[in-house]
Amino acid sequence: MLFYRKRGFTLIELLVVIAIVSVLVALLLPAVQQARESARRARCISHLKQFGLAIHNYHEATNALPLQSTFRPGSTFSGFSAHARLLPQLEQGNLYSQIDFSVGFNMQPAICAASIPLFRCPSDPGDGLRIDGGVAFAPTNYGFSIGTWLAIDQQTGTAGDGAFGVNERRTFDSITDGLSNTIGVAEVKSFWPALMDGGKPAGPDAPPPVSPSQIAGWGGTFDPDFCHTQWISGRTLQSGFTTTFPPNTIVPFTANGKVYDVDFTSARFGPGTNRQSYRVVTARSFHPGVANVLLMDGSVRPFSNSVDTGIWRAMGTRSGGEVHGSF
């Protein structure tokens, strides 16, 4: 009589196989994640390039750059962003045709809640809408540069030193530092904490802060998820940024025993704020170590977190005459 022995894995063999598979997965997972992040970063760069093309097409059609915002002194009128003005050049002509620019955007809730994939970096985990004043708003990951840190002097009407201004229709000719040497748009993070309306610093020509730690001392109202949640709003905290500090610089502020990294404004536009409006709204990115930036010539390049502050600020001005050499 013949006996047939059943073949199979012993427990030790099974454990060895599981161990080998675990090692292989551990080795492969970072490569997969890196490939996914590379693809997301490429999409983000593509979005910025589309902004660059839209800006140039807008300038060709109007002989001017889109306003970063509009502001009526003494009014609560909500000024529209450069994003909103560029909609026709970004293949969003149908949405643009529905906007009434003669009234505040907060009176047009369907427009405020419109989510536009081009305005979002695929690496940003923030999602959904944010309710403000009973209106739902859609976020953005791309901010237009207003320069070093002044948004507008509400007493004189003088706007900041960046490529895009409040109430000022600027042109390529006004960018005397050169289009390839001037920042136009940079990545920002949505649903970001804000410190607002402390009223300091006050007075014209206040110098920008030397250190991020200065900002907490100026105080203001804290909001844990306010910034860059309203692509339609021309407020710098929503659709702009400044070059006060290099990309991804931590600006610390402690609230309720927790340290937050914040964006800052000394005074927002509106009645009763007839003063200078300064901003520290930092370029931030979910891509490790860098932030992608659109230059005014239409090119896109990553800027390291370690870029020299002086060079970064020089890149943010349109006509500073700085010599910033290699960057």
Share of helix among residues? Answer: 10-25%
Strand content: 15-25%
Largest sheet: 5 strands, mixed
Query: Spatial order of the strands in the main sheet?
Result: 8-3-5-13-14
| Annotation field: number of helices | 6
Sheet/helix structural class: alpha+beta
Account of the protein in words:
With 327 residues, the protein is α+β, with helices and mostly antiparallel strands. It is built from six helices and 14 strands. The protein has helices at residues 11-62, 82-85, 93-97, 109-112, 236-239, 309-316, and strands at residues 130-132, 135-137, 142-145, 150-153, 183-187, 192-197, 220-227, 240-241, 252-255, 258-261, 263-265, 276-280, 290-295, 300-304. The strands form four sheets. It has a five-stranded mixed sheet with strand order 8-3-5-13-14. It has a five-stranded mixed sheet with strand order 4-12-11-6-7. The chain is globular and about 85 Å long. The model has no long low-confidence stretch (mean pLDDT 89).
Short précis:
The protein has about 325 residues and is of the alpha+beta class.
SSE topology:
Layout: H1 11-62, H2 82-85, H3 93-97, H4 109-112, E1 130-132, E2 135-137, E3 142-145, E4 150-153, E5 183-187, E6 192-197, E7 220-227, H5 236-239, E8 240-241, E9 252-255, E10 258-261, E11 263-265, E12 276-280, E13 290-295, E14 300-304, H6 309-316
Parallel strand pairs: 3-8, 6-11
Antiparallel strand pairs: 1-2, 3-5, 4-12, 5-13, 6-7, 9-10, 11-12, 13-14
Q: Descriptors for this entry?
A:
14 strands, 19% strand, globular, five-stranded mixed β-sheet, 327 residues
